[in-house]
Amino acid sequence: MSVKPRKKRSIETWDRKKIKAGERKRLLLKAGESFTGTGVHLPLMVWRGLEEGPVLGITAAVHGDEVNGTGAILKLIQDPPFELKRGALVLVPVVNIMGFERHSRYTPDRRDLNRTFPGSESGSLTGRLARVMMKEVVGRCDYIVDLHTAAVRRTNFPNVRADMADVDCARLAKAFGAEVIVNNAGPDGSFRREACKSGCPTIILEAGEVLKVESSVQEMTQRGLTHIMAELDMIDVTDDLRPDTAPHQMIVQSSSWVRAGSGGFLTFHVAPGDTVEKGQPVATNTGLLGKVLETIVSPHHGIVLGMTTMPAVSPGDPIVHIALPDTQKQFRSLEKSVDKIEDDALENQVRNHLATSITVVEHSVEEDGIEVNDTDDI
């Protein structure tokens, strides 16, 4: 990916407002207009440390219903676990403000903001919002962490996605401390891809569900952001702010969705964050009167990166998203590390918390013995 040389805009002045060293200032950035012709404004906070240093942007809700990151940024604003010594933070709790107000992933003109970057000053409503973000936020930051969740009716085990060929993106991704890093540059038109192309290394976190603020996800997000600030020497690390990380970290190059072969109602046998063997049952698909239609098995060794939370499925619906280790040896090492995680560790707290969105039972090969008429769909 080619990176454009750029001249970074000042962090000290926004819309003719001065931000002094050591100051936190709330700002409203004009992002468009509503159907009534009134202005739509993007709330953000600029927080400067006392000393010069890097500018880190933290953004959330590029998809307007993905508010786990919004909660994490608000917690960072209201109850920061550190004192910002060097550099500055640019905190944007909601990027897609128009989608957020409608509880929608998309903008009012039915576009996906995260496929519209770098945008255009004279384009669509969505394109104009993308352009404002590129100019006013990306244009002032040295690094960005963009916070996402799974799409509607899905949940994601916390994982970082980054272009690991970019040394600065790789530095951020490893510092965050998630168990899984997915190595890719992101789709065309995505915020992180275009931010990286403009010269601002950007990674994303995928964690949890839409329209929720989940406590364990919030805690893991805050821990990871603190790790990155420590790595960038923006904060002093004390005994109370020890940068503990996951017991292992696996970089994967690919992932695969396991899909339903037929319509039916699912009973799950795995949860987010579980390791799975090739051929292991991940779900049983039944009719509405309990007749087993199929046992869905994993075609790969790997770790469950995400899964549906909706048990009613149609043929071809995605069920379980599996991150694929490069080698069998890497998978066995991952399996052993997961087994050794302490019960009270944050990683296991997240696993247990995310599993509450679904019911997980052990797979049984026994027939239920109930007689039914010769009807295949019940």
From TrEMBL:
UniProt xrefs under InterPro entries: AstE_AspA_cat (IPR055438), N-alpha-Ac-DABA-like (IPR043795), N-alpha-Ac-DABA_deacetylase (IPR053138)
Domain of life: Bacteria
Residue span, Succinylglutamate desuccinylase/Aspartoacylase catalytic domain: 53-231
Gene3D superfamilies: Zn peptidases
Cofactor(s) annotated in UniProt: Zn(2+)
Keywords recorded for this protein, A-Z: Hydrolase, Metal-binding, Zinc
UniProt KW Hydrolase keyword: yes
GO molecular function, one term: hydrolase activity, acting on carbon-nitrogen (but not peptide) bonds, in linear amides
UniProt protein name: Succinate dehydrogenase
